[in-house]
Structures are given as structure tokens and as C-alpha cells.
Design goal:
- Strands 3-9-8-7-6-4-5 form a 7-stranded mixed beta sheet, sandwiched between helices. The protein has a 4-stranded antiparallel beta sheet with strand order 10-11-14-13.
- It has helices at 8-16, 18-23, 109-112, 121-128, 133-137, 150-156, 175-195, 202-208, 233-237, 243-246, 270-293, 317-329, 397-412, 415-436, 458-469, 493-510, and strands at 95-97, 103-106, 168-172, 220-224, 256-257, 298-303, 333-337, 363-366, 373-377, 441-447, 450-455, 473-474, 476-478, 482-485.
- A hairpin with a 6-residue loop joins β8 (363-366) and β9 (373-377).
- The chain has 511 residues and is α/β, with parallel strands linked by helices.
Length: 511
């Protein structure tokens, strides 16, 4: 990171340029707007919810935003890509504080990765415990030299929330490497199934190290338009969102199916949406059959329960049930990418639980709110030899310590029920706001607090995010014109009402 070249005015112009907007990692765009009053409490008239909220917030949280400067402020201003520098020591609960002292209600939470807010006492307690010192100081190569209690900690942490039917887990560091290694597991499984044994031929071994068949078989994965599965090479081949993520990077020629483009609200367009989903499912089967005839079989299908980065695109639960059936019919593995949807934000710990299937997937990947990356998998996807799925660290065992405490908090504080309650407030508020501002907002949608709304165009979306941030509200964009809302699990109804008030004020100024 460094200062932009040229004068301050040149830097300002750069920040307003289209190239800079395209480079914003979170779509919370860095741009100067009019200065604000210092440390205000919202009192503007209009679409208000605050009067309905609880009077006494919990002590782990602030009572509202407090803005001292525009954002980014003087300390954060002249950097590329970074939105603003943060003061994480001062951040607390649902509030993110920047280095200029601005306190903002965070409804984006580090790209949906903060499970129970900032500096939660249950997590800071782990750091303060001297018995954990050795765990934090020493980072082991988990695949070769794991700590003695590592299996026990996995059992108490990750495996305690394992999806139904899964008894195996592979830890990884992030979402991309979780999916990348899950893809490898699929290919290994499929190839062993093809040859009828896990023992390769000498020719397969010889050709594998020179990137030739049969050692490197011509297998494929089927993915969907609008999908985002990560930024490593295999994941990029199944990612189909923004050019900035893929441009100039060689990729695999794998089949891409259309994802349903639904009309909202869903309950008002059931017939049209069912026809659209049927069209997409027919295309999936057609692609699988065509690629098999080409000698490039589809070893697996990968899909998100909700396409997040691609624009918060939903499909019906029935769509996923039928897609799972298609995968079984054609002998393809079914990988559900829960990197962003997992961990409770939809009101269930795993979004695929909403589908109501006894056998929802073969592999389920996770990261973000789970604090560690990895994937759950069925027995048949266990690597047949050591070091086939491997890297030095295979994740970070300290994150599983934190996750264990997060799971305790979720259960003791009944946070999944809180998510459902606050999610209803958010979604109803978005419905009301799009009715109030039909020229600006449309297609409000969501499940739990995993919500989004469309703005009339990309420029207006970006301006609205900026305006809201300078009023003390951190939001994120997705797709070409959507705003996504990704609060932590401790985001209560009172926070939802406050969010809607600030969001309303930010919208009103765009009129």
C-alpha cells in the first residue's frame, strides 16, 4: 500500500474513477463527500424505527454510531484499494471504529466473516488465558505434527456442527483453498471410480508430472453463471462474476450452466420462476450429457445456496433438491459451497438445511463466519493416499479454539433465533423502503439476515454506500447494482431498526 501519485486533487480524481471503483475489494468505496456533524444521534424525521427498539443495549455493544470526520478520514485517505484503516481495539459488538475515531454500525462485517461481533468477551478470554500461550506461539504443520488434543478440539468445535450425514472434515486456511482442495477430492474420487481401483498405472504416474493424459485426466466441473468460488486457479474456472477477478489468468474449459434469474417477490411470481428454474435444470442435464459425449465427463457440480458475490441471487429450495437428484443420476459429485452462507446468517447453521434433504451433498465447504476454512466430506471422498490433500499448515488450529467458543455463544444466547427475528425486521424494512423509493430500490430479498436489495444502477448503488458510510453505516456491494447486508449473529432487532433509519436517511439524500 502507498500513496497515490500526484497531488491531492489528482488522488481525489483517481478515487472517483471507474478503474478505482472496479478495484475496491469490498465495494465499500473510498471517496470524499460532504463533512458531517461530530458524534450525532439520529433524530431526522421520516421512516423511523428507533422508537421500537430496546432501551438498554448489552454492555458488549455501543448505543449507536458516532461520526467525527468523513470516511475515509485524514489518516486513511491517500491509499489504493483500502477503504479505511480501522481501530480494532476500540471496535466492539456490531460497531467498527476507524483510526479517525468514527464509530460505524457494521452491516458488512469484514465481508461476512465476523460471527459474534468485535472483541466479544468469550473470544478475548481465550487470548488472556496463559494456558493457551503455547497454542498461539507455535503453529504446527497439522497434517504431520498436530497437537495432542487436536482431534478432541476438532470434535468439540467443527464436528459439533457438522451437517447431517457427515463424519469427516478437512481443515484449510480460507474459502478458496477449501474449494480448491475439495475439487481435487472430487477428481480423485471420480478417477478411482472410473478405473475401478485406487492403484494408478505406470503410464498414469509418468504422464501426471508432465501435465498429460491419462495421468492428468480430462475431467470437468460444472458451475453456474454468477457464481463465485474463490481466486485460486481451479476456483476461478468455476467463478463467473466480474472480469477483474479473472482477466489475464489462464483457465480450464469447463461447462457453465445458467443460474435462474428469478423475479421478486418470489411468492408473486411462482409460475414464472418455476419455468425459469426448469429451463436451467434442463440445461444442466444437457451440458452433462454433451460433455460426456465429448469425452470430458462432469465429475462434479459446485453451487452456492445463495450466489453472494454474484449479486445475492436466490433459487427455490425445490431447485436445489432437483439439482441434487440430477447429480446423483449422472454419477457426479455434488459440492455445496457454504463459505459465505454457512455459520448461521440464514437462520439455520447451514443454508442447505432449508432444502429439507436427508442427503444434501457429498462435500460442503466453509470459511468466513466459521473462522477457519475447510470442508466436510463423505467417507468415499477420503484421499486414498497420504499427501494427496496437503499443505504445510492445513489451516490454523487456533481458529478452531475460537470457533468452539463461538458455537457455545450461538447456543447459549440462542442466536439463530435472534437472526430470524432481526432478519424479519430487515427484510420488511427493505420492502417498505423500496415501496417508498420505487425509483431507486427494487428486488428486496433475503433469508435470515442474509439480505440484499437492488439499486437502480451501479453509480447510484456506489453513491448510496458512500453516503450511508458517512452517516455511520458500513455496507457492501455485490453483483452490478446490489447492496448486500451481512451483519454478525449478535445483530439484534434494535440494530436492525437503527440500520433502517440510517439507510433511509442516506437514500433520502439521493432523491
Amino acid at each position: 500500500m502507498g500513496k497515490s501519485p500526484g497531488s491531492a486533487s489528482e488522488t481525489y480524481g483517481l478515487r472517483c474513477g471507474a478503474k478505482f471503483l472496479e478495484n475496491m475489494a469490498c465495494s465499500i468505496l473510498s471517496h470524499r463527500v460532504s463533512s458531517l456533524k461530530s458524534c450525532f444521534r439520529l433524530t431526522a424525521t421520516g421512516y423511523r424505527h428507533v422508537s421500537q427498539t430496546a432501551a438498554n443495549p448489552v454492555e458488549e455493544d455501543f448505543d449507536g454510531p458516532c461520526m467525527k470526520t468523513e470516511v475515509p478520514g485524514p489518516v486513511s485517505r491517500n491509499v489504493i484499494q483500502v477503504n479505511f484503516f480501522c481501530d480494532y481495539e476500540e471496535s466492539k459488538g456490531n460497531y467498527l471504529v476507524d483510526v479517525d475515531g468514527n464509530r460505524m454500525l457494521d452491516v458488512y462485517t469484514q465481508i461476512a466473516s465476523i460471527p459474534i461481533g468485535y472483541n466479544h468477551p468469550a473470544l478475548t478470554k481465550i487470548m488472556a488465558d496463559p494456558m493457551n500461550l503455547g497454542t498461539f506461539v507455535n503453529r504446527p504443520a497439522l497434517g504431520m505434527l498436530p497437537p495432542g488434543k487436536f482431534p478432541e478440539k476438532l470434535f468439540n468445535g467443527l464436528m459439533s456442527v457438522a451437517p447431517k450425514g457427515f463424519s469427516r472434515v478437512q481443515t484449510m486456511a480460507c474459502g478458496s483453498c477449501s474449494n480448491e482442495n475439495a475439487y481435487k477430492s472430487i477428481f480423485i474420487w471420480y478417477r478411482n471410480k472410473q478405473r475401478g481401483t485406487s492403484v494408478p498405472t505406470p503410464e498414469e504416474e509418468r504422464t501426471s508430472v508432465i501435465n498429460q493424459v491419462p495421468g492428468c485426466p480430462d475431467l470437468t466441473l460444472l458451475s453456474f453463471m454468477g457464481a463465485f468460488h474463490g481466486r485460486t486457479l481451479g476456483c476461478l474456472a468455476t467463478t463467473h462474476t466480474k472480469p477483474i477477478q479473472k482477466l489475464d489468468v489462464p483457465s480450464f474449459d469447463w461447462p457453465i450452466a445458467p443460474y435462474p434469474q428469478l423475479k421478486y417477490p418470489l411468492d408473486q411470481f411462482q409460475r414464472e420462476n418455476a419455468q425459469e428454474e426448469s429451463r436451467c435444470l434442463e440445461e444442466v442435464e444437457d451440458l452433462i450429457e454433451k460433455w460426456a459425449k465429448k469425452g470430458r465427463p462432469v465429475a462434479g457440480i459446485v453451487i452456492e445456496p445463495i450466489q453472494a458475490e454474484g449479486g445475492d441471487n436466490h433459487a427455490s429450495f425445490d431447485f436445489f433438491r432437483k439439482l441434487r437428484g440430477i447429480a446423483k443420476k449422472h454419477g457426479s459429485a455434488f459440492l455445496v459451497d457454504e463459505v459465505q452462507t454457512g455459520g448461521g446468517s440464514t437462520g439455520k447453521f447451514w443454508a442447505h438445511e432449508h432444502w429439507g434433504l436427508d442427503d444434501p451433498a457429498d462435500i460442503i465447504s466453509f470459511s468466513k463466519k466459521m473462522l477457519t476454512g475447510g470442508y466436510f466430506y463423505k467417507d468415499e471422498f477420503q484421499a486414498d493416499k497420504p499427501f494427496r490433500i496437503f499443505n504445510t499448515w492445513l489451516g490454523d488450529h487456533t481458529k478452531n479454539m475460537f470457533l468452539t467458543e463461538v458455537i457455545k455463544v450461538i447456543r447459549t444466547e440462542n442466536l439463530l433465533e435472534e437472526v430470524k427475528k432481526s432478519g424479519k425486521v430487515i427484510l420488511q424494512g427493505l420492502y417498505d423502503l423500496q415501496t417508498k423509493y420505487p425509483h431507486l430500490l427494487s428486488r428486496a430479498r433475503g433469508i435470515g439476515t442474509f439480505c440484499a436489495v437492488d439499486v437502480k444502477d451501479e453509480a447510484s448503488r456506489n453513491n448510496l454506500i458512500l453516503n450511508a458510510r458517512n452517516k455511520g453505516l458500513v455496507l457492501g456491494g455485490c453483483g452490478t447494482q446490489s447492496i448486500r447486508f451481512r451483519p454478525s449473529l449478535v445483530f439484534k432487532e434494535r440494530h436492525a431498526h437503527l440500520f433502517l433509519d440510517i439507510f433511509n436517511d442516506a437514500i433520502a439524500e439521493l432523491k
